From TrEMBL:
Keywords: Membrane, Transmembrane, Transmembrane helix. The chain crosses the membrane at residues 6-26, 38-55, 61-78. This is Uncharacterized protein.
Length: 97
């Protein structure tokens, strides 16, 4: 049985950095910025990996990987990034007569 140690937290941070970077590069400008994806990836990976170890779901890395991707998906989907989403000034592009 693996315990929550500094080594495990190091691997969770490394996993969060990698997943956050890749997710940020994939979604580009459609979600939050790349540094924000990296930050939230590290936070999600450490939290879910620690939870995985405490609930005895293996070593926690697979658990952290899957739920970090899910967390970053939620962060990017619910981020308002378009001007019309922020300010509500939607101008119709098609003129109906």
């Amino acid at each position: 049985m693996i315990s929550l140690s500094a080594t495990a937290i190091f691997w969770f941070i490394a996993l969060g950095l990698l997943v956050g970077l890749l997710y940020g590069l994939i979604v580009k400008r459609e979600g939050v910025t790349v540094p924000a994806n990296i930050f939230w990836g590290v936070i999600a990976s450490v939290l879910t990996g620690s939870l995985g170890i405490l609930l005895d779901f293996g070593d926690g890395l697979l658990f952290a990987f899957v739920y970090t991707i899910a967390f970053l998906f939620i962060v990017n989907v619910f981020h308002q990034h378009h001007e019309e989403d922020k300010y509500g000034n939607i101008k119709p592009r098609i003129k109906v007569e």
